[in-house]
Amino acid sequence: IVEKDRFQTLGDLRKQWTESGVETSRATVYRRVQEMGYRCRIPQVKPLLNQKQRQKRLTWATEKQHWTVAQWSKREMPKCLKSSVKYPQSVMVWGAMSAAVNAASYQEILEHFMLPSAEKLYGDEDFIFQHDLAPAHSAKTTGKWFTDHDITVLNCPANSPDLNPIENLWDIVKRKLRDARPNTLDELKAAIEASWASITPQQCHRLIASMPRRIEAVISAKGFPTKY
C-alpha cells in the first residue's frame, strides 16, 4: 500500500487497513510503517511544469550558466507579499521592489518607487530588472514603460520561483511575522516594516550569491524543479 502511493498519510493507511478488516490505532500504523523501513515526511510543494516550461527553464539556465555573482547583483527583483490579520483585513507590501494590482498601478509603483531606488543603488550604471510573469508585469503597456525608460528586463521562464531569490527573502519576512502575532492592521504594518528592517545586507548577498548554484541545479535537473 505504501509503495503504491507515497503521498498517503497515516490516516489514509489506517482507513485502508480498517476497510480490509484490520482494526488498529494511528500509533500502531506509525510503528509498523517505521518497522518496515519507511519514514514519514512532508512533501515539498513545487510548481507543476509541463515539458515546454521545463525546456524553457533549461534553456534559460544554460544561457545564464556563466553569469558571475557580480552580474546577478545588478538586478532589481520585485515581488508582491500579501499578509492578513483576519479576513477581510489585508495589506499589500513592497520592499524596495514592487507590489501591484494591475498594469497601470504597477507602472506607477515602478515610476515612483523603483526608479528612485535604482537611482540610489546604481546611479548612472546600467542594471537588469527581474520580475515574474504576473499579468501586470507582462502587459504590453508595462513592456513599453521599460522600453521608454531604457531599462533592460530579464526574461524569466514561467513557474520558476527557484530562479528568483526574492522568493526566499519574502519567506524570511513571513517567518518573522509568525512570531510577531499582530492583532490589528496597524500592528501588522509595523510588524512587516520591522521584519523587513531586520534583514541584513549579508542575507541578501547570500541569496544573490546562490544564483550560480540555482542555475546548475536546473541544468542538472533538466528543467525540473530544484530544492531552491
UniProtKB/TrEMBL annotation:
<dbReference type="Pfam" id="PF13358">
    <property type="entry name" value="DDE_3"/>
</dbReference>
<dbReference type="InterPro" id="IPR038717">
    <property type="entry name" value="Tc1-like_DDE_dom"/>
</dbReference>
<dbReference type="Pfam" id="PF01498">
    <property type="entry name" value="HTH_Tnp_Tc3_2"/>
</dbReference>
<dbReference type="InterPro" id="IPR036397">
    <property type="entry name" value="RNaseH_sf"/>
</dbReference>
<dbReference type="InterPro" id="IPR002492">
    <property type="entry name" value="Transposase_Tc1-like"/>
</dbReference>
<feature type="domain" description="Transposase Tc1-like">
    <location>
        <begin position="2"/>
        <end position="64"/>
    </location>
</feature>
<protein>
    <recommendedName>
        <fullName>Transposase</fullName>
    </recommendedName>
</protein>
<dbReference type="InterPro" id="IPR052338">
    <property type="entry name" value="Transposase_5"/>
</dbReference>
<feature type="domain" description="Tc1-like transposase DDE">
    <location>
        <begin position="95"/>
        <end position="189"/>
    </location>
</feature>
